[in-house]
Design brief:
The protein is mostly helical and about 575 residues long. The chain is built from 24 helices and no strands.
Length: about 575
Amino acid sequence: MSFIQICIIIINFAGALAIFLFGMKLMSEGLQKFAGNKMRSVLGKVTGNPVRGIFTGALVTTAIQSSSATTVMVVSFVNAGLLTLAGAIAVIMGANIGTTVTAWIITLFGLGESTSAFSLPMFLGAISLVFMFLKRDRIKSIGEFVMGLALLLIGMSFLQKAMPNLEEYPNFLQALATLSNFGFWSILIFVVIGALLTCLVQASAAMMAITLVMCYNGWIGFDAAVALVMGQNIGTTITANLAAMVANTNGKKAARAHLVFNVIGVVLTLIFYRPVINLIANITVGMMGTNPYDSIESSNYNPQTIPMALSLFHTFFNVINTLILAFFIPAIIKIVDWMVKEKPEDEEDVFKLKYISGNWMNTSELNLQAAEKEIEEFSKRVLRMFTFLPALRTAKDDEEFNETVARISKYEEITDRMEMEISNYLTHVSVNELSDKGSQRISSMLRIVDNLESIGDSIYQVAITRKNKRETEVHFDQHLNDNIDHMTQLVWKAMDIMDKNLKGDYDHVDMVSANQAEEAINKYRDELRAEYVNAIKTGTYDYNIGSLYSSLFALYEKIGDYVINVSEAIGVKFKDQK
């Protein structure tokens, strides 16, 4: 085989794989856009009930056709405290079951000569759906899903054609045969190969497709193919573990649990390897009339047999492992607790994004969940920053006062950076194709982070005003202090409502309470302003006191304005395009 021939094979193979992966991505995106926020909301509402968690993980993964996307979502939910570690493990178990659907799609529809007979009409039909209903978002999403499925099948057809005829290359066949001649060690070798290749490709579905094509073409036998599939189950855990690199301790534990579950499953299967494989072979014989162990030279050889047996094994492996290990979730938690040690560190005053990073998920719709959780963290920081303000009045000495001002200043810098990072992230996400509702939601979130940053700026301005008051030795009497304290309580109530709205469903925001809190702030500001004007006229206190006093209650009212802006941005109603 010449160098040019090798290059042509690699280029053809890479192109076919790219079409297959793009088809998978398009299917996933189409379904996620069609489901909107419901997919994330279903996963987010899973409780500690293992059965419900397994069912939800299987359902979501079957829908979005990506166990990696499901497990990355799970890591983010655990990171955000929306899922317990036990609930996350149950969802991950279900995700492993849901991902077996891909193998069945390929086995039943994506292998053989008939693939192109219906994949091209599907593709053309999907194009017509997309272009005929450009203004109807949900129908367009269905078109994208159908187009993705068509491309997946076309990619499988191209993968088959890209595979060279190994009969022309006896040396390669001999190398494969040599790897298969070490008995049980050969199984372990192919497990390792499957894990490494899946880590490189970053898609277990793609590796499953490659394995099925290799079986169909007679490159590898049934034992080697089963070992590759087991290795793929280990290799696919790398995606969630990469995403967890920037997660908190619980997020890391969820990712490690995915690895532990799949490794234990592989070990259990290896222990009972021969009985399990014989069972699958017997079931296949009953279904197909042929044995997956039949060699390519055998008169009974059927190229569809091993792919069918492999799909059966893939489903059997994940279902049985889930049924067994679901009873040992507490033990898995103990293992990951040992693997990931708690770090006793206070991160309150340290800038660190928790939920978004450079490791974007495959689809833009899923990235919105990470952004929403980061905005909730932004709100938490702002509320924490606001709680420092009373200490500026009650500080016992200059050292305590200056420490509080310095801490508020540090938080102000953090809010500036969070606003910039989240906005950049949302801008990056918006470049990719989104549903109309997703695009509108990004606009809403950009407005929210802008106002949260403005709240941080205003809190800092209150601290600077307090500092000027202290340096100029201006003193408020008890009445003025009580007024500022009451205004502080009103603003705090409004901020608490804002924070609760951010933590809830963006489609159901409590605008009644938010507006009532804003009206209370404005009404009290008007009362203080009228009292201040009268006091200046009557000479109740001098200009310096009046100036600083009016600046303070005006700043608090300004914070209230930004707070209501956040709730209004959350509460904007977006209608799905019909």
